[in-house]
Amino acid sequence: MATISTDTDMISEQQIYLTLSRNLPNFKATSDLQPVNGGNLNHVWRIKGSDKDLIIKWAPPYIASNPDVPLSAERIHFEAKALQLFDEGNALDDLGGNTVRPPRCLHFEEELNLLIMEDIGMAPSLDEWLTDNSAATAGKKLGKFIGQLHRQTFANKQLSRRFRNLDIQQTRLEVQYNPAADYAMQSGAAGVDFNLIQSQTKTLGQQLLKEGSCLVMGDLWPPSVLVRRGEMRIIDWEFSHFGQPLQDVGHFAAHCWMQAHMAPSKELKDKFQKLWILFWKHYRASLGNRIIELKQDEVMTHAGAEILIRACGPFQEGYLYEGHKPGSRSIMQAVQKAQQFIESSQISELWTNS
C-alpha cells in the first residue's frame, strides 16, 4: 500500500478510495496510490486502472512541501473551475483543440479539496523535452494558446466573478513582490538599486489586487507544460485568476531567461531564447489588437521579481539556482538582470547582453 502521512490534517486513503467508488464507479484500480514527486503546493498521487490511469490531487491549507507556510485550499477550487472551462460545451472548449489543453477534470470533490484528473502519462516537462527537441513548434503552439486564452476571456464579466482568486494574489504580494528588494539585498550583488526594486515591485503587487482584464493561467513556467507525441498539456492551474496578462507573459519570459542563463551548453541556451522569441511572436499575433492591454514595463517588473524569488529567495531550492551561494557569479548575474528588467519598459530588451 502507498504511504500517506498520518498527520491528522491529511486526507486519508479511505476518503480517496470512497470518493473514487462513488463518483467513478466504472474505474477499476490495478495499483495502490503512488505519490507523484516534483510538486510543492499539493499532495499528488497516480493510480493505475484497467482502462485508464488517474491523477489525484489534494490541496491542504498550507504549502505541502512546507507545512509551516499557510496557503488557502481554495486554490484547487480555481484549478477545477479552470479545467472545467475546457470541457465540451463550456466557454473554452474550442481553445487549442487536442493539441494544447489542460488535463481533463473527471471529478472535483469540493468539500475534500480533492481533484481527480486524467493521467497523461510520464510526459517530460517542457524544459526536459527541449533538451532533445526543437523550440520552433513548442514556442508557436504555446504562444498561440496563451494569446487566445487572454483574447477570448477579455472583459468577460462572468469569468471575472468566478475567478477572483484574491488569496493567491495576496500571497504573491506578501511572498514575491513586497520582499523582492530584500531578496536582492541577500544576494551579495554589488551596484543594485534596492530602492528602485522595492518601489517598482511593491507598486505592481498592489495593482494586481485590483480587478483584472482577462483569465490568466497564473503559473506559466516550463514544469507546468508537459509534452508528449507533439501535444502539450498545461497543468497546475491553482493560480488561475481573472487578472492581468502581464503575469503569464512576464512569468514565462523570466523562466526562459533563467533556463538560458543556467543552460549547460550554448545549444540549449539558444533553444530557450528561440522558445521565448517564438512564444512572444505568436502570442502577439493571437492577442491581436488587445496587445494594447499589455503593459510592457509591468511585464518586465514581474519578470524581474520572478528571477529574484527563484535565484535568491525562498523558491531557490529545487530549481536552477539551488546550492548557489550569495555572492556567486551566477547569483550576481541573475540579480543584475532582474534589476535591468525592472528598470526596463520594453520586452525587446529581454535578451540584451544576455
Automatic annotation (TrEMBL):
<dbReference type="InterPro" id="IPR002575">
    <property type="entry name" value="Aminoglycoside_PTrfase"/>
</dbReference>
<feature type="domain" description="Aminoglycoside phosphotransferase">
    <location>
        <begin position="32"/>
        <end position="260"/>
    </location>
</feature>
<comment type="similarity">
    <text>Belongs to the methylthioribose kinase family.</text>
</comment>
<dbReference type="GO" id="GO:0016301">
    <property type="term" value="F:kinase activity"/>
</dbReference>
<keyword id="KW-0067">ATP-binding</keyword>
<keyword id="KW-0808">Transferase</keyword>
<dbReference type="Pfam" id="PF01636">
    <property type="entry name" value="APH"/>
</dbReference>
<protein>
    <submittedName>
        <fullName>Phosphotransferase</fullName>
    </submittedName>
</protein>
<dbReference type="GO" id="GO:0005524">
    <property type="term" value="F:ATP binding"/>
</dbReference>
<keyword id="KW-0547">Nucleotide-binding</keyword>
<keyword id="KW-0418">Kinase</keyword>
<dbReference type="InterPro" id="IPR011009">
    <property type="entry name" value="Kinase-like_dom_sf"/>
</dbReference>
